[in-house]
Queue: 3 jobs
Job 1
Amino acid sequence: GARVWLRDKELLLPATVSSRSHDDLVLTTDYGEVMYLQQGELSRDQVFPMHLTSINGVEDMSSLAELHEAAIMYNLYLRYQKDCIYTNIGSILAAVNPYKQISGLYDPAAVDLYSRHHLGELPPHIFAVANECYRCLWKRHDSQCVLISVESGAGKTESTKLLLQFLSVMSQNSAGTPQSERSIRVEQAIIQSSPIMEAFGNAKTVYNNNSSRFGKFIQLHFSQSGNIHGGCIIDYLLEKNRVVRQNPGERNYHIFYALLAGADKNHRGCNLPVETPTLEDSDNTAS
């Protein structure tokens, strides 16, 4: 019944001791594989006990007693099974895409709860990062930055929306001061710009139906009272070749399909004769 790590070639696998005798050791990995090991073949490097922090899982992986890739992945797996998709690594937040809706995770009550606590006082959450960023604007009297970086389909776009959602609420509630009409318009413009940016810069790929094919830098300006009073969005590295060519199973940018969906039926497909342009009229041919 003891929990151990089993070294299989270059991998460390979480496993459970099924039985033990003077001659051999029977292990069952978490992937269902049964391993029979002779006592004479065993070594400390091949099978060793799993630490309690790895068995139970931790909210902050900097407190893991075993710092290797297998322990990190197993800890994320344990929390993922409990719908705890956020895990801290010191001041870094690791997020695992649940690919489903988790009740109450981002509702107004969660925003209010994390806005009243410092980082580390509550379970890991993207709202905790956003709140710490907002507080540090005045605590350190300096600009703050949140960097979201990971592979396609992991949830960068949605995480950005959640950060903006939290900062918008904090802006509205800041110091109990009423916001000006201009400040409210700025907040709404920044939040509502996301679907527009996605329409022109996101496309379906084999990994993600709404994959961002460009980089995005969002800058927010806060007043001394804590309200958002300005901002800008800078895009860069747009995947331009997708406009003219897509890989099998992928699509062009969303905006082209939106234009076709909104067009009159008579204009969606024109039965025009197809002619092969010659060198003489190539300057007048659109590509």
Job 2
Amino acid sequence: MIGWEDVYKVVVAMVPLYVALMLGYGSVKWWRIIPREQCDAINRLVCYFTMPLFTFEFTAHIDPFKMNFLFIGADTISKFIIVLVLVLWAKFSSKGSYGWSITSFSLCTLTNALVVGVPMLKAMYGPTGVDLVVQSSVVQVIWLSLLLFVLEFRRAGIEGATANIIVDDGALKPKATSATIIGSNNNNGFDDVNGGKDLEATSTTTLEIGDVGTRPPFRKLMKLVWIKLAMNPNSYGCVIGISWAFISNRWNLEMPSIVEGSISIMSKTGTGTAMFSMGIFMALQEKVIACGTSMTVFGLVLKFIAGPAAMAISCIAVGLRGDVLKVAIIQAAVPQSITSFIFAKEYGLHPEILSTAVIFGMIVSLPVLIAYYAILEFIH
């Protein structure tokens, strides 16, 4: 049963994140320590150095041979359910789009399990809860790698589709006009390219560009994506970490201390620098809630209702019962992954929504998770 001491432990784990957030915010907004033109460089430091090393260190120390594969299967099925729903929504709904589907997937499925999930599940279900939430974090690393692939694919498609834009008398004009794409002020300049369907945006910049048919052929597009992924250290952090976990546990090997020390010195800064970068991003926005109240509520609904609902369906489908079922549902309601914001910022896809989901999600999560725990106690 959860007591005040357990709640205090969760608060102790969460408060340092907000300290890092406020330091990042203040360094730009109040103290002017970091110039605005240098802010993107800090996010790239987190994206390409601290996060890949954090991913490697975390995955390299798990034992893949002792994982609960029924639980992992339920987690995987729940994500496939969400992917299927979002793809159908993007394809057949007039309001659907693939850019928003990517963001919605992040909101529904990606969690901050280590910071919030571990202390909460430990208080609720003891070592069993901790073990399962750590396993879900390992699997999430794989999904983050797949998310990285989708984001690179989107970026490559956008770059190919905009290749024919020319400048004439200071104005952007197309070589041939047949599609209008609404741009974004984020890093990549455009929200999405999918035959003119994805026309939502986070800004009001409208550019006439060349026919979407001028995008590179699929084979060439995939080649560009794989080249980008090959140059992205986040791709290696997951693959090498899990590979080492299998090898080390199969043959009882230990990582050389000089290698482990070199990795941990940067990886330990991962969560802190990510929150610091988020604080910087907040400082650059006109409002603290950059995405508005309605989108904040939408993100919280996806995070705390849609995600756990999909997990409940998949758990029942595979036959999970008892505490494992309860842990699976509650860990799906753990607040938003910080890494999802870092990727959103780097690839220019709704970072204002992901940052708001992280910041307010952690505040809301404590009463929500306790409510889930109380409700699930009636299930035997």
Job 3
Amino acid sequence: MSARAQEIGARVAAFVRQVVVPYERDPRRSAHGPSDELVAELRERARAAGVLTPHILPDGSHLSQRETAYVLRQSGLSPLGPLAVNTAAPDEGNMYLLGKVGTPEQKRRFLDPLVRGEARSAFFMTEPAVDGGAGSDPSMMQTTAVLDGNHWVVNGRKAFITGAEGARVGIVMAKSDDGACMFLVDLPDPAITIERVLDTIDSSMAGGHAVVRIENLRVPADQMLGHSGEGLKYAQVRLAPARLSHCMRWLGACVRANEIATDYTNRRHAFGKPLIDHEGVGFMLADNLIDLKQAELMIDWCADVLDAGEPGGTESSMTKVAVSEALMRVADRCVQVMGGTGVTGDTIVKQVFREVRAFRIYDGPTEVHKWSLAKKIKRDWKERQK
């Protein structure tokens, strides 16, 4: 790991542990995530500490994916950490996409406020599966975009749109005659209505996850991101690193949960000795160390692939499956070894368990990634037969 990443990561870890962790009991946290007031307060403290948006350097360049992995893991040591230091989803992925695809004017208008931590964003891709829309398959997208003069008119519905409530920047995916497109929009917009914020198992992301209706949204032609019909390509530019950064953040959360479980089992006595000395408990914590290290190595491997300039779709799918499943095991064991305390709000272990359970679905369920990998296995086999 580079010296600069170690230095940045150490400052982020210290800030999260010393400043952010005490906010974990703040009443401004709800089932739909921390309030915007709380997010603004945390970001102001991060700005003062010099750790706001730590993965983007002052000249606008990014840390490498390997370096980002180290820094984002430190930000994840608290469920509030990524929001506090501005490395949270969907903003982190949206910043990455805008940095890669946006025009200079689009970056000035839409990216710069995100980097400064002055605004939140939302990525409008997923659609309600009950309407036959694009759940985990964006090729099924039903939202349409029709060119009318120098504007595009967008209509459709979206679901599970993280952070839509309270966002100021939106990236909307829709389908033109050319194929999938992406549009940059200022939020709120009267043509975009939040029908409801879903009651989900997780609660760490500001604004929660919304179902949204888009009716005759008029977007100036110069606010299309890239070119008409290339939206699926841009989605892959965003999604491969975004899957990986999810893994980074939740690895940090599970490291912290394991620290709490370890402390608990060393202090708690039962049947004449500390819990840690009971093999059934000690072995679970040993398994946690193995899973955490394997998750870390998978993340670093995938980061190296992306840093080498490869698309990384296959590698990010493999990593997302392996890491989300491993971290689910870690979080589950932390709850189990802590017994009744593990299912209470006395520590963040309960929340980490719930967040990681959702992570197994968000950015593609495990089964969708395995299906994609199986298709690649078949394609590769056919190529070898030629």
